[in-house]
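Hi V.,

Quick status before I head out on leave. The structure for the redesign project is tokenized and pasted below; the design run finished overnight.
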């Protein structure tokens, strides 16, 4: 059982997606939005200098400088305590499989961010990410 908000970082190059996630999280006490980044490289640099790491990172696949698939590989190697979730419009099964192989827990489509946050909350609340 959790007694504190889920510490979350969000990474997407779309300002629209950033604003939407921020609004959804601000209306909710389940999550504590640590920070938002515009690409995977920015996320990794930010993680290197944080005193406290997020528990969860939601990462878009297609971004400039470093996409989510490559970022997942580096983050899972350097920050293994962080649970990585993909957030993408892609339907490329090979890309989704590679993200999971690189340490991603699950991949969500961009069609329903509210449902994504509810599922992440449920899995994290129950400390049961194995049943994803």
């Amino acid at each position: 059982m959790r007694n504190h908000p889920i510490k979350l970082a969000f990474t997407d190059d779309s300002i629209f997606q950033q604003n939407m996630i921020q609004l959804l999280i601000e209306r909710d006490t389940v999550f504590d939005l640590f920070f938002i980044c515009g690409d995977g490289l920015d996320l990794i640099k930010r993680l290197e200098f944080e005193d406290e790491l997020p528990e969860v990172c939601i990462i878009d696949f297609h971004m400039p400088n470093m996409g989510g698939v490559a970022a997942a590989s580096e983050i899972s190697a350097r920050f293994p305590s962080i649970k990585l979730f993909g957030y993408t419009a892609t339907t490329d099964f090979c890309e989704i499989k590679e993200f999971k192989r690189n340490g991603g827990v699950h991949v969500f489509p961009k069609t329903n961010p509210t449902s994504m946050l509810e599922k992440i909350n449920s899995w994290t609340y129950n400390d049961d990410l194995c049943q994803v």
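Above is the designed sequence. The chain has one domain: 6-127.

G. will cover questions while I'm gone.

Best,
W.
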